[in-house]
Amino acid sequence: MSQEFDVVVIGGGPGGYIAAIRAAQLGKSVACIEKWKNPQGEMKLGGTCLNVGCIPSKALLASSEEYEKVQHHLADHGINVSGVALDLAKLQARKDGIVSKMTKGIEFLFRKNKITWLKGQGGFVSKSDAGYQIQVSGEGEAQTVTGRSVIIATGSKARHLPNLPVDNRIVSDNEGALAFDSVPQKLAVIGAGVIGLELGSVWRRLGADVTVLEALPTFLGAVDTSVAKEAQKQLTKQGLKIHVGAKIGEVSASDAGVSIQYTDKDGQAQTLQADRLIVSVGRVPNTDGLGLENIGLAPNERGFIDVDASCRTTLPNLYAIGDVVRGPMLAHKAEDEGVLVAEIIDGQKPHIDYNCIPWVIYTSPEIAWVGQTEQQLKEAGRETKAGQFPFMANGRALGIGSSDGFVKVIADAKTDEILGVHIVGPNASDLIAEAVVAMEFKAASEDIGRICHPHPSLSEVMREAALAVDKRALNM
Is 201 helix (H, G, I), strand (E, B) or coil? Predict the structure, then answer.
C-alpha cells in the first residue's frame, strides 16, 4: 500500500518548497517530490531559482560589480588601487558556496517542518477516491504515493532556438552562462530580456565585449517607456552594444566560436562573430513527463496548465502554481501562489492581487516596477497624473556614487490612487517594496508624500516623486 499524504507537492523550487512549508505549518502531512541534481550528482532542493537562476546570478552580479568598482570607481573616492586581478575560479566558488548554503537551508526547513522529501521524477499514475496516485522514480526503486491534494510546481526551462544545440560551453542558456570557466573576449547574447541583460552585464564587467541582439523593435517593451529609455542609455554608456529589431538568421557554432547571421532594424544583413553565445529567448513550462494524460488533464496550446484565480485546475483538489501557469514567471509570484494554495487547502480564503506583484531587473542601475505603465493606462483611457524625481538630486545617492536614474509615480487624475511606480536607479529592488505596500492598501500618492522618510536615504526619492505628482516636490 502506498504512502498517503494530505498534500503532495511536485517540484521543490520557490513555489513548491514554500507551498510544502506552509501546508506543514497548517498541520498537514506533506511530501515534496524533487529530482534536481547539481553537477556533482547530488540531489538538491530549490529548483532553477536557487541552483541556476536567481541566487547564483545575483551572486555573480554582486562580484562583477565589485570588480568594476575597483577598476573604475574607487578612484572617485580618493582610493587608488593597482594590480587588480580577476580570480574567476574563486569568484565562481563563492557563487557555488552561496547556492549550497541556501539549498541546505531548505533541507533544514523540511526537517524542521517534518516534510518528506521524495527524491526523483514525479508522474501521475491514476486518480481515485483516496486522491491522486503519483509514481516517484529515478532514485532507487520506484514508489507510488497518494496525495489527497496535489500541487504541481514544476517550474520552467530555457527556450532554445531551433537547429541550434545548447552545449553550455560555446552556446549556453542561463545554466551554462553562470558557469563560464573563462571570460570570453567577444560574447553575443540573443534576447534583451531580464536574463540576457543581467548575464550580459556580468560578463561585460569582467572584461567581455558584449553585443545583445533583440528581435523586438523596442528595448524592454513591457517597461514604462521613460524607464526603458533611461536604462538603455545607461547600459549603452557602460559598454553593452544593444541592437533592437534584429531578425536572427542562421547561427553556426564550432569549437572556435559562433557566427550569427541577422538582419538589423534597417533591413541590412549583418554577421556577428563571437567566442560564446548566450541564448536568452524566454522560458517554457515543465509539463512534459508529468503523466497528466493519466488523470485526464492536458496543458493548453502554449504548454501551460490552465487554472482559475485560486490556482485550481479543472480537476478537484489539484492545483498548479508558478511558471507552469499564467502570469509572470517570477519566483516571488510562485511563492505567493504556494502560500495561497496551502491556505485554500486548509479552508482559508486568501487572495493575490497580481497587479501588485513587483518586477525587478538586477542590472546597474537596477530596474523595478509595480502596477501599470503610463502607456498601458493611456491605452485603457485612464486619466492619470505622474510625478518623477531624479536620484541626482538626492544626497545619499550622490554619497554612494550612484545617482543615475529616477523614481516615477503614476496616480489616478481624480482619486490620486497610485496606479504604478517605476524605478531605474540604485537599490530599486528594495525601494519598490514601499510602492507594493502602498498599492496593496490602495494608497494615494499624497499618502507617500506625507509619510516621514529617513534623511539622507534613497527612499526620499520615492517620497519626492509622490510629491511631484501634485507638482510639490520639495528638492526640485
Answer: helix
CA 106 – CA 45 distance, rounded (Å): 7
The question of whether 77 is a catalytic residue gets the answer no
Instruction: Output the nine-digit C-alpha cell for 61.
Output: 552580479
Question: Hey, which bits of 163-267 come out as E strands?
Answer: 171-172, 186-190, 209-213, 241-243, 247-254, 257-263
Q: Which residue has cell 553585443?
A: 211
Integer Cα distance of 300 and 314 in angstroms = 12
- Decide: 452 and 440 in contact? Cβ < 8 Å: no
Q: In the block, which residue shows the cell 497548517?
A: 26
* Whether residue 295 sits in one domain with residue 148: yes
Please say which residue of 281, 303, 322 terminates a domain: 281
Closest CA to 61 of 365, 422, 328, 274: 365
CATH number of the domain enclosing 80: 3.50.50.60
pLDDT of 139: 74
Residue that is last in its domain, among 326, 352, 378: 352
Q: Are 406 and 388 in contact (CB under 8 A)?
A: yes
Residue 35 lies in a domain: yes
The answer to whether residue 1 scores a pLDDT higher than 70 is no
- Would the pTM count as exceeding 0.85? yes
C-alpha distance across the termini of the chain, in Å? 72
Quick one: 276 and 299 in the same domain? no
List CB contacts of 54: < 8 A, sequence separation 6 or more: 331
Whether 65 is in a domain gets the answer: yes
Whole-angstrom Cα distance, residue 69 to residue 181? 22
110 lies in which domain range?
3-157+284-352
CB under 8 Å to 240, separation ≥6 — which residues?
197, 200, 201, 204, 210, 212
Q: Do 368 and 388 fall within a single domain? A: yes
| Owner of C-alpha cell 520615492 | 462
pLDDT of residue 37: 93
Mind listing the pLDDT tens digit for each residue in 347-394?
999 999 999 999 999 999 999 999 999 999 999 999 999 999 999 999
pLDDT in tens, 51-64: 999 999 999 999 99
Cα distance between residue 204 and residue 200, in whole Å: 6
8 with 108, same domain: the answer is: yes
> Torsions phi, psi of 247, nearest 5?
-95, 115
